[in-house]
Amino acid sequence: MDNLTSQYKSINLLDASTHTNIHTYFRSSYHIDPSRVMVMGWWSSSAAMWLLAVAVAFALALRAEALAANWGTRVLHPLPGDITVQLLKDNGFDKVKLFEADPAALKALGHSGIQVMLGLPNELLATVARDVAAAEQWVQHNVSHYVSDYGVDIRFVAVGNEPFLKSYKGQFEAATLPATRNVQAALVKAGLSRQVRVTVPLNADVYESLDGRPSSGDFRPDITGLMTSLVRFLLDSGGVLAINIYPFLSMDADANFPRDYAFFPAPGAPPSQASVQDGNVLYTNVFDANYDTLVAALDKHGLGNITVVVGEIGWPTDGDANANAAAAQRFNQGLFDRILAGKGTPRRPQMPDVYVFALLDEDAKSVDPGNFERHWGVFNYDGSPKYALRLANGRGVVPAKGVRYLSKQWCVLRPDASPTDPAIVGAVGYACQYADCTSLSPGSSCAGLDVRGNVSYAFNQFFQSASQQKGSCGFNNLSMVTTTDPSQGTCRFKIMIDTGRHDLSHQDGSGAARAAAAWGVVAAVLALLAIVAL
């Protein structure tokens, strides 16, 4: 009650900016125009605003403890849907984003009370953009079906995923806005447009500031017209804009990037020496500066009324020298503290919905951006916490319950096998083509293993990914199954989740892409083998 009272008292009912904030909040959240609220049969602006102010204060008090997460499903042995949903609920997550319409995940989310943002993948943009009938079919199969038949609370369709990313070289630019229009039309036709709205998750590279000050923010010159048209459509149709912000990537890409500026400052700590002075505002961390650069760009083009949610933000724990549990704990604790306190940025004081990336690790995700891509989870692949976090009311993270594992056994290099055996190079390459060996990357959790440990780790990853099937620990008689845990130091030799029969071929990416990623990952192993052979 004290929190609610203090928030209510902070709302000045006679302040013009408050009226604007309330108006924007109800338009974006509930499609309600506060100026048209009827009170006791009479149109009363002041009475309506008073009631709406109370409602806003109550809503903000509830939202102050709400968390949102990205639930990726590119995994070989997925955590069962019902266990994942309970994991979300036990840890206070009431919103989730799916990158695609995964049937198991959607069915598990039915009647859960968790709101869903559902992704339409980039690969479908061209098809949906060309033909509104294709959009209608997608909405029918992936939105209407799960809303009506399973009670899934779908609130957004995320059209594409970072479609204007520079590295795509314009591949999805022409299709994104037409696809968004067609999805919106399909939602209207399905009678879902008041419940389900459209958004487009964008990478932070769609805007820039030439002098480094957020107030100088503007859209990237090559897509300015496209951005203004897209945001205008989202605004007019009641949608929101989703932006993905990654301080980790900013730091990891630039050896000279000031490390402390990537993190949220601790309470009472002096500001980073890299803080940016922008007029009367001091930006002490890259998130605030990045987000407000977008807000400034929107304001510059008369689009400042659009609601901007954070579609992805987080910190990985492995696969890179800058990716570790200590850094991830520091960043995510600072982020969660901000979310739970409702503290936004200088230009948007109320914290928006923030979808943490990610809930769980994904061992079959593409590693094109880097080997860290498979390690963004706040939780391990099995729902166990990676590090301590304080959530709402000071409580800690709760692990997943009821997880079933394969037998307690591992595949390792035979004691009598020589690391210089010519067959080992091919065996390791084969193992890592079909399993995740990114923890062997330089600076990662298993980088300290000796050559025998490296080979054993690769063998075990394949063995576990193949569900410990007979013959999956063969490797030309170089390996053996052991019941003694070979984990060493920070390197954990995993036992996979028991999901029954699993088809390794039913995964994302071509064989060539997997092979290329595998050989990149095992470079350290092969280098060690070469040293041993000398």
UniProtKB/TrEMBL annotation:
Q: Where is the X8 domain?
A: 409-493
* The name this protein goes by in its record: glucan endo-1,3-beta-D-glucosidase
As its record notes, the protein acts as a catalyst of: Hydrolysis of (1->3)-beta-D-glucosidic linkages in (1->3)-beta-D-glucans
Database matches in SMART domains: X8
The record ties this protein, via InterPro entries, to: GH (IPR017853), Glyco_hydro_17 (IPR000490), Glyco_hydro_17_plant (IPR044965), X8 (IPR012946)
Q: What is its EC number?
A: 3.2.1.39
Tell me which UniProt keywords the record has, alphabetically.
Cell membrane, Disulfide bond, Glycoprotein, Glycosidase, GPI-anchor, Hydrolase, Lipoprotein, Membrane, Plant defense, Signal, Transmembrane, Transmembrane helix
PANTHER family associated with the record: GLUCAN ENDO-1,3-BETA-GLUCOSIDASE BG1-RELATED-RELATED (PTHR32227)
Domain of life of the organism encoding this protein? Eukaryota
Against Gene3D superfamilies, the record matches this protein to: 1.20.58.1040, Glycosidases (3.20.20.80)
Q: Where in the cell is it found?
A: Cell membrane
Q: Which organism is it from?
A: Hordeum vulgare subsp. vulgare
Identify which top EC class this enzyme belongs to. hydrolase
- What GO MF annotations does this protein's record show? glucan endo-1,3-beta-D-glucosidase activity
In its keyword annotation, does this UniProt entry include Hydrolase?
A: yes
What does the sequence similarity comment in the record state about its family?
Belongs to the glycosyl hydrolase 17 family.
> GO terms for CC?
plasma membrane; side of membrane
Q: Which residues cross the membrane?
A: 42-62, 511-533
What topology does the record note for this protein and the membrane?
Lipid-anchor; GPI-anchor
Which gene produces this protein?
LOC123397591
- What GO biological process, any one, is recorded here? defense response
